[in-house]
Specification:
The protein has 9 helices and 13 strands. It is of the alpha/beta class. The chain folds into 2 domains: about 140 residues, 2-Layer Sandwich (Nucleotidyltransferase, domain 5); about 160 residues, ATPase, nucleotide binding domain (Nucleotidyltransferase, domain 5, 2-Layer Sandwich). It starts with a strand and ends with a helix.
């Protein structure tokens, strides 16, 4: 069976798969990144994981993988195949596409940004299926975004497209590591909600999930923390939808696991802020933590399709 390697690299762990022609995950595995051993060790862990998957695929299906797709965090230069920078992994300007291709015996490799890659999967085969324009926003440790247009995800001229987490929603607000003040992710990420609830509840171990449970229980302090986050998120989303006019807003990440505890007040908050804009559907992500792997597989198949088309015209 023709298959590809799909690899999703996170800050602490890696999720990988062998993906079939329909995008189905034929085999799945996980490994730590080994970031405590430094950026060079992380790169070597990625290469070893990919090589092991390639060998497994060859044994199981009788042929080596036709291509590989890898999604990584931070700043990514898709066109040149460079992992430019990732604060949580410590690397700079890693020629990951070339390194992976060499380790895998010359197979073509596609490199993508983790959130945009997850957004690609959500747009094509997840919650955004059938939407020609969508914005995917995962609410996790931080907030990023993926702008979907006609089955692809827009990276921008310099690789920064979709960074909604650094839209300023509270001028002169909380300082952000990016250098601005009042960025959306300082108010509406899962980590921000967790910090706010830990302070409000006087429980240093409390997190966003605990806050959501307290909201469901009617805790006034939790309701206040939650509504402040929802209002900030609505402000950021309305700015984005005014600029992009998406047909669907797909919300994922840890905070979205609260379900309608998040989505009911969020839809209402967005509606209150609209004037001339058309409200898109606001839906939860459908693919969970498999989105990155599925998207990496799609990147690999897209690369093969492009190669096949080129060969047909020559």
């Amino acid at each position: 069976m023709r298959h590809v390697i799909a690899l999703d690299v996170g800050g602490t762990g890696m999720k990988a798969a062998l993906a079939g022609p329909g995008g189905e995950l034929l085999h799945q595995a996980r490994r730590p990144t080994g970031r405590d051993r430094g950026p060079e060790a992380v790169v070597e862990s990625i290469l070893e994981f990919a090589a092991d998957l390639g060998a497994l695929g060859t044994r199981r299906f009788g042929t080596p993988p036709a291509a590989a797709g890898v999604a990584v965090p931070g700043i990514v230069d898709d066109a040149r195949g460079l992992a430019v920078y990732a604060a949580n992994l410590g690397w700079r300007d890693v020629p990951l596409r070339t390194l992976l291709s060499d380790r895998l015996g010359g197979v073509p490799v596609a490199l993508g940004h983790d959130v945009r890659t997850g957004g690609l999967a959500e747009g094509r085969i997840g919650a955004g299926r059938g939407a020609d324009r969508f914005l995917f926003v995962p609410l996790g440790t931080g907030i990023a975004g993926a702008i979907g247009i006609d089955g692809r995800v827009e990276g921008g001229a310099h690789g920064f497209a979709g960074e909604i987490g650094h839209v300023v929603v509270r001028p002169d607000g909380v300082p952000c590591p990016c250098g601005q003040r009042g960025c959306l992710e300082r108010y509406a990420s899962a980590s921000a909600v967790g910090q706010a609830w830990a302070a409000a509840s006087s429980d240093p171990a409390a997190d966003a999930a605990d806050c959501a449970k307290a909201v469901d229980a009617g805790d006034v302090r939790a309701l206040r923390v939650w509504q402040e986050a929802v209002d900030a998120l609505a402000d950021g989303l309305v700015t984005a939808l005014t600029l992009l006019d998406p047909r669907a807003l797909i919300i994922g990440g840890g905070l979205a696991e609260a379900g309608e505890t998040l989505f009911t007040p969020l839809r209402a908050a967005v509606t209150r802020r609209l004037t001339f804009q058309t409200q898109p559907s606001i839906v939860p992500a459908a693919l969970g933590d498999t989105a990155g792997c599925l998207g990496a597989g799609l990147l690999a198949w897209d690369l093969l399709d492009a190669t096949d088309r080129t060969e047909e015209t020559t």
